[in-house]
Amino acid sequence: MLKTIRKHGITLALFAAGSTGLTAAINQMTKTTIAEQASLQQKALFDQVLPAERYNNALAQSCYLVTAPELGKGEHRVYIAKQDDKPVAAVLETTAPDGYSGAIQLLVGADFNGTVLGTRVTEHHETPGLGDKIELRLSDWITHFAGKKISGADDAHWAVKKDGGDFDQFTGATITPRAVVNAVKRAGLYAQTLPSQLSQLPACGE
Question: Which pTM does this prediction carry?
Fold first, then answer.
């Protein structure tokens, strides 16, 4: 009887150990898969705001944290694109604080000579059917920033048409596109200052 109990106890212990090991392995595989998917999604988003042929470094690994009023309150990530180890452009996280329904989060690709290479909205709370046309899935409006050059802080072209600029506003919604245009302009201007700052900026994760 004692021998049988001992045998069953060993079997249960081995089963428990095996189950624990299997669970740990599944958890690790799941974490790896999630991380890989997140990395692929990030790369796909980068490619929408910065043409892949413009750089040949691992963009996600060239990340810096900046605190600059031009990008909004708090810290924002900036990714430096390099061609043969030479900085040539940046992808910047930036915030338009003055959207109609709150802050609008953006990703802006820009070179260091004042040209915006692409822009995408990553988060917003704008009104469905009106301000949400800043989303690519609803309108191509956000694509019109690509290739536009900023000549300086006083560049009047960088405004919605209602304010005398080049960018369309939406029917019944001017506040949202105005906020985005202004935020992208600020980010593009800030990008021009990055080359002189790189040696002082903390890397992400430090």
Answer: 0.82
Question: Do both 36 and 109 map to the same domain?
Answer: no
Give residue-wise pLDDT tens across range 77-129: 999 999 999 999 999 999 999 999 999 999 999 999 999 999 999 999 999 99
Measured between alpha carbons, how far is 89 from 72 in angstroms, rounded to an integer?
20
* Number of domains making up the chain: 2
The answer to whether residues 80 and 160 belong to one domain is yes
CB 205 within 8 A of CB 122: no
Bridge partners of 64, per DSSP, are: 78, 203
**Pair 179, 98: CB distance under 8 Å:** yes
CA 122 and chain centroid, separation: 7
Structure tokens at 65: 């944290």
Residue 66 and residue 21 share a domain: no
DSSP annotation of 51? -
Domain that holds residue 42: 1-49
Contact call for residues 27 and 9 (beta carbons, < 8 A): no
Query: In this structure, are 177 and 123 located in the same domain?
Result: yes
